[in-house]
């Protein structure tokens, strides 16, 4: 059997696709897989060691009418031609799309050639590409039960699978994880994820908040700052005499999640799914330029009492007192963790692979 997976350029798209392929290979050694990615994903620095990969030329295309978009449209047509060549050569039995405009040519052409199509939606609020492709798909897999209401299709085509996490994700003993970072077992550990696109405001707001905390001596930080802010943030923690481990990018996220008492982050679908897996209380600030998507993701945790949502433009005014209120109230922290008991932890990669194989 041949299974083709196609996705966009971000980690939030690529990691679920990679995890899906790994789950297939673990269970069925004879399955041949191919992952199709946009060429611009090469700039992300994501290493894919266990996947057979082909690249297509699809650029970013928006709904605006301008000269740049006309050029991008030409690139999309080129990527569609490349997608056609891949399908004709690989001859998939099943095509699995993980969203973004990059997945449209492969999924649509697969439908045209009567290849079974499964699409997977990572976010609560489906993207435009998956809303379009749902009409042609044989099955639509969703990460959250709330997503089903957004698809105007036969509900029998929908399956709740969860969002496949990176293969290395596992819960580690908290003391071992703290030892990995050489941090104290007696302090309150905050994981700050401010290094992703558009998260510079989280970096600056948290630094201001941390330096004003009344119980600053009890704070220690793991901070993913991004390359641009790295050195300045290191200097700021040193000036404030705050124990911190600062990284531009960090590979061993299972260690960081396991060590933390609280996380401050955006609300990408992968992050939300990982928080559910690690049952980690959160302060979430939805990315303002993907606000609807990220806000709906964050509400999944907020509505169960697992997270506090702070709008991006309110971080400077509210973040410090919110962190302090959680640090000083262990019962609050315990209650936030208990809220995760109402959120299912699904074996998403296995469920998604089963959904795909069932189509054949």
Fold and architecture overview:
The protein has 360 residues and is of the alpha/beta class. It folds into 2 domains: 2-164 and 346-359, Rossmann fold (3-Layer(aba) Sandwich), CATH 3.40.50.2000; 174-328, 3-Layer(aba) Sandwich (Rossmann fold), CATH 3.40.50.2000. It has 13 helices and 13 strands. A 7-stranded parallel sheet has the order 3-2-1-4-5-6-7, sandwiched between helices. A 6-stranded parallel sheet has the order 10-9-8-11-12-13, with helices on both faces. Helix 1 packs across helix 13 (348-359) and helix 5 (174-181) packs across helix 8 (253-259). It is globular, with a radius of gyration of 21 Å.
Q: Outline of this structure?
A:
The chain is α/β, with parallel strands linked by helices. 41% of the residues lie in helices and 17% in strands. Helix 2 (67-90) crosses helix 3 (104-112), helix 5 (174-181) crosses helix 8 and helix 6 packs across helix 11 (315-327).
Write the layout of secondary structure elements.
Layout: E1 2-6, H1 11-27, E2 32-38, E3 53-56, H2 67-90, E4 94-97, H3 104-112, E5 116-121, H4 128-133, E6 139-142, E7 158-160, H5 174-181, E8 188-193, H6 200-211, E9 219-224, H7 230-239, E10 243-247, H8 253-259, E11 262-265, H9 269-278, E12 282-284, H10 291-302, E13 307-309, H11 315-327, H12 330-338, H13 348-359
Parallel strand pairs: 1-2, 1-4, 2-3, 4-5, 5-6, 6-7, 8-9, 8-11, 9-10, 11-12, 12-13
């Amino acid at each position: 059997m041949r299974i083709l997976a196609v996705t966009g350029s971000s980690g939030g798209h690529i990691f679920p696709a990679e995890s899906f392929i790994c789950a297939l290979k673990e269970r069925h050694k004879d399955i041949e897989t191919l992952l199709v990615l946009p060429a611009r994903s090469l700039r992300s620095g994501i290493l894919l060691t266990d996947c057979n990969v082909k690249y297509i030329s699809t650029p970013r295309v928006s709904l605006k009418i301008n000269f740049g978009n006309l050029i991008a449209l030409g690139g999309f047509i080129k990527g569609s031609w490349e997608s056609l060549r891949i399908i004709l050569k690989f001859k998939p039995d099943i095509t699995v799309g993980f969203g973004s405009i990059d997945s449209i040519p492969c999924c649509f052409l697969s439908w045209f050639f009567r290849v079974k199509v499964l699409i997977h939606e990572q976010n609560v609020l489906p993207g435009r590409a998956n809303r379009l492709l749902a009409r042609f798909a044989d099955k639509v897999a969703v990460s959250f039960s709330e997503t089903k209401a957004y698809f105007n299709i036969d509900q029998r085509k929908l399956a709740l699978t969860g969002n496949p996490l990176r293969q290395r994700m596992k819960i580690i003993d908290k003391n071992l994880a703290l030892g990995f970072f050489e941090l104290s077992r007696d302090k309150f550990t905050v994981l700050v994820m401010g290094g992703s696109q558009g998260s510079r405001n989280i970096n600056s707001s948290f630094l201001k908040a941390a330096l004003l905390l009344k119980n600053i001596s009890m704070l220690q930080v793991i901070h993913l700052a991004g390359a641009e802010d790295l050195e300045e943030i290191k200097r700021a923690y040193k000036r404030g005499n705050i124990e911190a481990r600062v990284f531009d990018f960090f590979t061993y996220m299972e260690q960081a999640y396991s060590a933390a008492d609280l996380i401050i982050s955006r609300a990408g679908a992968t992050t939300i799914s990982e928080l559910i897996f690690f049952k980690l209380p959160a302060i979430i600030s939805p990315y303002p330029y993907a606000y609807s998507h990220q806000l709906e993701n964050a509400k999944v945790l907020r509505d169960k009492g697992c997270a506090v949502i702070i709008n991006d433009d309110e971080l400077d005014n509210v973040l410090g007192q919110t962190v302090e209120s959680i640090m000083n109230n262990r019962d609050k922290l315990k209650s936030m963790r208990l809220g995760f008991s109402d959120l299912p932890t699904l074996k998403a990669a296995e469920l998604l692979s089963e959904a795909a194989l069932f189509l054949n």
